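Suppose you are handed only these lines of text.
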Amino acid sequence: MSRLGSRVGANHPVAFAIRHWGPTLPCMTTSDSTSAGLPQERRLVTSIPGPKSQVLQARRNAAVSKGVGATMPIYITDAGGGVLVDVDGNSLIDMGSGIAVTSVGNAAPKVVAAVQEQVARFTHTCFMVTSYSGYVEVCEALNRLTPGTHEKRSALFNSGAEAVENAIKVARAYTKRPAVVVFEHAYHGRTNLTMAMTAKNMPYKESFGPFASEIYRVPMSYPFHDGRSGADVAADVISKIEKEIGAGNVAAIIIEPIAGEGGFIVPAAGFIPRIVDFARDNGIVFVADEIQTGFCRTGDWFACENEGIVPDLITTAKGIAGGLPLAGLTGRAEIMDSVHVGGLGGTYGGNPVACAAALASIETMEELDLAAAARQIASVMIPRLQALAEKTGVIGEVRGRGAMLAVELVKPGTHEPDAELTSTIAKACHAQGVVVLTAGTYGNVLRFLPPLVMPMHLLDEALTVIEEQFLAHTGN
Ligand SMILES: *Cc1c(COP(=O)(O)O)cnc(C)c1O
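From them, the structure of the protein bound to pyridoxal-5'-phosphate can be written out as follows.
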């Protein structure tokens, strides 16, 4: 453990070199504009959870439904840049961004200023009653930034699940067809329709049925487990659709370009393009669910760009608004406009405060080139994780793109999932003040989603802690 730790400590060009890369990544210094002045450090002053968090946890248990889980039983008072500070004064390195949400950093200065200004002017009118420019501007930004130069329209909602629901409503209205094709390992949300679309039973679906009908699940390309080419798996998908559903009955095929909750599964090259071609040839609306992958997370504005995919509809949420609840559905004008007037909407969808936050977040992403920052994070993390895989033998695969990276844990020398070790290492990282998340259909994936403004010295330190915990728990 100490061997790797000291190697990293002694030979550590990253935090220094980044200063010279300042012009392209001006955000990656230690405090300044990204962190509202919070010290960018890992600092443990109590055990985790500390006494004040424990008191709040007891109150939580008495007040909050048990059905709402938590990765860590700590209570946050401040956050910014790459840290979360808890009620006991512990400062933890944030490798989760509240599940890929605070990509521009927590309480990012521009977002805070924009929200403060908007919240003092008006908080709500309902866009369907009397309109305001922020909603229109967010739609303009979505139409401009999402893949494809075709004419587009957007609509705004409160959550990712709601955006997915509306994608299905629009696709059905446009095609006048019922069936929806989803993939193994997919995650699309927790509402009734999106539960039906989500693959994993526990914890998302167990005992919550019956589910919506006309949802059909097909294989997902998962190179680590299927060892097959993208074209091969796509051929199976297409055959299944033709034989079991009938292409002419399918309204939409929806896929995450990188499966998020399913374990950061990157489908083999060519898999998605083949399916896009099939959709286009058969009048099926192709929907990319970029709720987790979107807004610079994978090193592009949207993950679809990596293979030049232009979806008919695209869902966005999470990273869109610096932590305020907002979601978008964007797509071809003729599809989005095929719905009758009044068919889409909701009381709070595109709330003016959330729209102000989104506009400030998008401006921040453009100004700081956070797509490049995501690629920079990958270039630091991937070699370290690969070295760790070789050293420990329990990491079957290091995968992902940009600042959406994961390791899949297996019993050494096999493809057999090791969920227990995954949970052990995640908890050990938590105890050391590094917030990491798990994922995966088999519960054996550690995933990393740092804020894209993560200071490099903290990224380095988080990796060192992760390495130490792996080595400590694999007999190295
Ligand atoms: C998180 C997520 C959703 C659901 O978003 P909510 O805002 O939690 O409703 C849908 N699809 C994907 C890919 C997600 O990662």
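What can we learn from it? The pocket of pyridoxal-5'-phosphate is lined by residues 159-161, 164, 187-189, 256, 260, 289, 291-292, 317-318 (CB under 6 Å). The first strand starts at residue 76 and ends at 80.
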